[in-house]
Amino acid sequence: MSHVKAGGTAKNVHDSPGQRLGVKLFGGQKVKVGQVIVRQVGMSKRGGVGTSVSRNFTIHAAKDGIVTFSSRKIRTFSGRSVRRTEVTVV
Predict the structure, then answer these.
(1) How many domains in the chain?
(2) What is the mean pLDDT of residues 69-85?
(3) Strands (E), 1-90
C-alpha cells in the first residue's frame, strides 16, 4: 500500500475578467447625452445637476455640457457627515 496521503483540491482556480470600473470622463471634458461618466460599485461618487444615476450606480450625462467634479458633505444614515465627490454637467 502507498503511504502518501491524498492531495487536496484546488479552490482558487477561477479567473474572471475585470469589470472596467472607474471614471470614464474627467473634469473639463465635453459630454453628450447618455454618455457614461463614472462606472462604480456603490455610491462613492454622487450624481448632481445634469446627470442621472442608473440601477448599478453608473452616472450618465442627462444633457450636453462639460463635466465638473466637486466635493460636498453628505449625511450618512448614522448621522455622521462624510465628504463625497459630486459629478455635475454644466
Answers:
(1) 1
(2) 95
(3) 22-23, 30-31, 36-39, 45-47, 51-53, 59-61, 65-75, 81-89
* 15 is a domain residue: no
Residue 81 sits in a domain whose CATH number is: 2.40.50.100
Q: Which domain holds residue 27?
A: 22-89
Q: Cell numbers 453628450 label which residue?
A: 32
CA-based angle 90:57:73, to the nearest 5?
Answer: 60
Confidence grade of residue 25 (pLDDT, cut at 50, 70, 90)? very high
Query: What is the layout of strands, in order, in the sheet containing 30-31?
Result: 30-31, 65-75, 81-89, 45-47
